[in-house]
Write a structure and sequence with these properties.
77 residues, mainly alpha, 3 helices, transcription
Length: 77
């Protein structure tokens, strides 16, 4: 009754829960399809101020850095 081209529906809901490592692996795969990880070191005080600013304004650090990079790159063109 199922079509061969039909996408499998949430296997983890059918009685076989994912282990934490499987869940993490799938999460990483989803994230890396559209995003690139950037790791950097900044002065401790600057990082703490940035974290406080984002939290105080209800922003995520990821969204804030993404927007800053977009603005920076648009100014460079």
């Amino acid at each position: 009754m199922t079509e061969p081209n039909e996408k499998k529906k949430r296997e983890y809901r059918l009685g076989n829960p994912l282990t934490q490592s499987e869940y993490n692996k799938r999460f990483e795969e989803r994230k890396t399809k559209e995003n690139k990880s950037i790791r950097m070191f900044v002065p401790y005080e600057l990082a703490e101020d940035f974290k406080r600013y984002c939290k105080g304004n209800g922003l995520t650090m990821q969204d804030t850095v993404t927007e800053l990079l977009r603005e920076f790159m648009s100014d460079k063109k």
